[in-house]
Amino acid sequence: MEQNTLIQIAKDFGSPVYVYDAEKIQFQYKRLTSAFCKVKHLKLNYAVKALSNISVLKLFNSLGSGLDTVSIQEVQLGLKAGFKPDAIIFTPNGVSLEEIENAAELGVQINIDNLSILEQFGTKHPKTPVCIRINPHVMAGGNTNISVGHIDSKFGISIHQIPHLLRIVENTNMTINGIHMHTGSDILDIDVFLYASEILFDTAKNFKNLEFIDFGSGFKVPYKVGDIETNVEELGEKLSNRFNEFCKNYGKPLTLAFEPGKFLVSEAGYFLTKVNVVKQTTSTVFAQVDTGFNHLIRPMLYGSQHEISNISNPNGRERFYSVVGYICETDTFANNRRINEISEDDILAFKNAGAYCYSMASNYNSRYRPAEVLWHNNSAYLIRKRETFDDILNNQIEITL
Ligand SMILES: Cc1ncc(COP(=O)(O)O)c(C=O)c1O
């Protein structure tokens, strides 16, 4: 988005504020569908957890996307946004049987990732087709928090438990209509995808009633200058060929599914913050902004590097800054970062603020969560109001002591 537009949005809606560029979301969606154009039946299920604002979900609905959900509340949001139940897959981890039954009652595709619930669900609801999430025992992903397909991970049913799984399916007479994996996020090397896919194909042969194979997600997007991204075009070419060959041998054209979050929304997002204080110390110059890890936790949680630019002074000379938040703990967004000269009241734009940013925000330090704005067809739409003091008090009960 143009810097002047972002500055205007900060003026009109205040700071801090999240801004999402609808055109970029549409571009990424089309890029991924084009990469897999050789596959007859392709389904992209946007991972709601990345950015769950209902207006963003509506945008995905208009593109023909499905949804990947991990909680009953995400399912409800998807339905409220207008998605048909069969366009939603429910892939929770470690939730109660009751929550899975509630989702099944709403008509969404159930995806089960452990044998205990599979047996209980299959016994009670043998007529509801179920997808199974397997754990292919592959180490993939940008860091340990987001590597979820390895042998020590809590996710999925181990490929070594397939004989037990098959026994449950036979004993309960249930139908397995899909098979799924998600090995991690920020996977750079397409060979890792292709390797894990072979394990999924091998497992799929055990099930005769499949309608789809879901390869999860994990596409890496660039975060900083010089960063490399997953080559989705090359992956699309190679995996599509292999998928078509598998379907031929399987005897039926299946649907190839993915459930990307970051790839679709990360780069569409900007987080605009105002500089409250420029503080010189003996070791650095701090730019202290009107936000903190309560609004954007990824740098502190994952060490992720969001590019930061001073959109109030884009041509100023570059200097080195530590950009920090106002939370009363170490709250660092960037260390020793080269940024155009910063003055108090300048607006800094954090890039890649679409995925796992607002959706991980909290009220820590009793701060309001920021507003969200969607930039669509050259207009800025407020899609979430900034919170107020009433929101902080909402649900709190004052007792007389
Ligand atoms: C099951 C599942 N699917 C999809 C995703 C989306 O991954 P990404 O944002 O890397 O595309 C996640 C992310 O945690 C996930 O857990």
TrEMBL record:
Enzyme Commission number: 4.1.1.20
Domain Orn/DAP/Arg decarboxylase 2 N-terminal: 24-266
CDD domains: PLPDE_III_DapDC (cd06828)
Enzyme class, first EC level, given as a word: lyase
Any one GO molecular-function label of the UniProt entry: diaminopimelate decarboxylase activity
Presence of the UniProt keyword Amino-acid biosynthesis in the record: yes
Keyword Amino-acid biosynthesis: yes
Pfam short name (any one): Orn_Arg_deC_N
Subunit structure: Homodimer.
Swiss-Prot/TrEMBL catalytic activity: meso-2,6-diaminopimelate + H(+) = L-lysine + CO2
Orn/DAP/Arg decarboxylase 2 C-terminal domain segment(s): 18-354
Protein name per its UniProtKB record: Diaminopimelate decarboxylase
Pathway(s) where this gene product acts: Amino-acid biosynthesis; L-lysine biosynthesis via DAP pathway; L-lysine from DL-2,6-diaminopimelate: step 1/1
Record-linked InterPro entries: Ala_racemase/Decarboxylase_C, DAP_deCOOHase_LysA, De-COase2_C, De-COase2_N, Orn/DAP/Arg_de-COase, PLP-binding_barrel
Keywords per UniProt: Amino-acid biosynthesis, Decarboxylase, Lyase, Lysine biosynthesis, Pyridoxal phosphate
Gene responsible for this protein: lysA
Binding residue positions for substrate: R298, Y302, E329, Y356
Function: Specifically catalyzes the decarboxylation of meso-diaminopimelate (meso-DAP) to L-lysine.
Family (UniProt): Belongs to the Orn/Lys/Arg decarboxylase class-II family. LysA subfamily.
